[in-house]
Each structure stands twice: as structure tokens, then as C-alpha cells.
Amino acid sequence: MKNYYVYILASKKNGTIYIGITNNLAKRIYQHKTNLVEGFTKKYQVHNLVYFEYFVNVSSAINREKQLKKWNRQWKINLIEKENPQWHDLFEYL
Question: Of 3.40.1440.10, 3.40.50.1000, 3.20.20.70, 1.10.1060.10, which CATH number belongs to 4-93?
């Protein structure tokens, strides 16, 4: 059985935010951090894992990612700060 994660990266506290989905969180964040992923996170240096959620069902994870992407910025900030008020990079805990 695969695990799925919806994650939020930030450039810094209250900085640029990116939302993604993966089935291997540690590997995917490493790819972002080392700029192996072309695109938004590389261009804007969005590398700090500040929030993630775990799912056992890919459909649930996809739906959650879509939901979060539709949220306004303040709702996303509130979600991050509820679990990670200092915006620590959670990658070191994976």
C-alpha cells in the first residue's frame, strides 16, 4: 500500500508558498531543495517544508491538494501557523 502526502513549501516565513502532492515525501522535498525539479520552486527558491498531511488514498490526497490550492493566502498561512507557528523546515524530521 502506498502513502500519499500533500505538502506546503515556503521560501521563508510569510514568503512564497507552493503546494504539491507526492507518494515519497522525503525524496520529493530533497528534489526541491537541490533544484532537481524545474519550475516554480526552483525559480523562486521555495525549499522549506512547512506543512504536510498524510493520506492512504490517492483520491483523497488529490482532492485535498486541489482544495488547498483554491484557498486564499491567509487561510494557507493560518493552516501552516496552527501546526508550525515558527515556520521551521520540517525536512530534518522526516
Answer: 3.40.1440.10
